[in-house]
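Task card 7
Instruction: Convert sequence to structure tokens.
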Amino acid sequence: MSILFALFVLLITSTMTISSSIYECVDECTCTKRKAQAAARYRAGSGFVYYQHIHKAGGSTLCSILARSRNVRLGRNVNCNLLMEAIPGNKSSEVQMRALPRTWTLADIERLMESSGRNALAAEDQPFSTMWGLSDSIMRGDVDNSRWSFITIVRHPVERLLSHFKFEQLAAKTGKNITEWAHWSPFQGQNYMVRMFAGMVPPKLPEHYLNQMDAIWPYFDHSPPVGWDAASMPPATHQDLERAKKVLQRFTVVLSLDWLEECAPLLKRWLNIEVDDVRARYWWGSIQATPAKRRHPPSPNGEHRDLFALNALDMELYEYARSLCRCNANKVYFRDHDEEKYEESSCIRAHKAPRPEALEREKRMC
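Output:
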């Protein structure tokens, strides 16, 4: 009898271990009242979306989804990066705003959005700023981001790295192979996604880069300025990883390129952004040709094992992002979900609120 009991305990333990896999839902519900109310504001026409564009992670495909949706107003843009005139009235001074000046506040950005009639904004070449209020400062109420929903898409870190190296033609520009280059240019080559979501700006980067709207940061990795090279770039740490996880957890929609078809409907559920198809596209909408011969997925035991080792923190963040995507797609945030009564009630009430006045009543009640 005791042997049978021991086998039973072993079976239950094994089952629990399997169910806690990274591919299953995370234990904590990531549906918060802030997310739900901001999403309701967006659906009602008074909110905004910020898209954190990660270079070579499927961003053009997501940009084309946003551009094709009738309730997204990106304005004049290149790959969702705003086009602005540095000198008002002078079209020849037009710049692509790939980064938000670090001197701007959230109030500055909201004035830009309202004056230009936009309701969506993206930045491709800038680590996520504490200005947005998704770091721990939001717990102290330092930032009023109640009108903003945040979205992003991630990709397998080594796949992203290989794509970046090829796209930027770095073998020809640097004379290095990809492993040599990853050691030489650690911002892009080592735990890039952790650095981006944790807001890790190179400490010695000249100040003018941080306030230059059209600074194209990926290009720095074949001619690094001071502050961008390995000698002055601190390594990403587990503390940075945990900070990046916290930020991602507070995003409204986190997509993963390899699960895009499964998770893209979250854009519709949360923000009423239409998703007609998820085929790989250029940002202007044309469907990308399927490669005649696809590369085998990189293996941690294959020729790219050094890249896996250099990007171990990114791999952990990637799996965490996929767990958010999978969990949310399976069971959370569905306004018409049959079992929504089992979800956190205040979050559901806020998420279902269709009008700004209802949101104001909810806010006063809180």
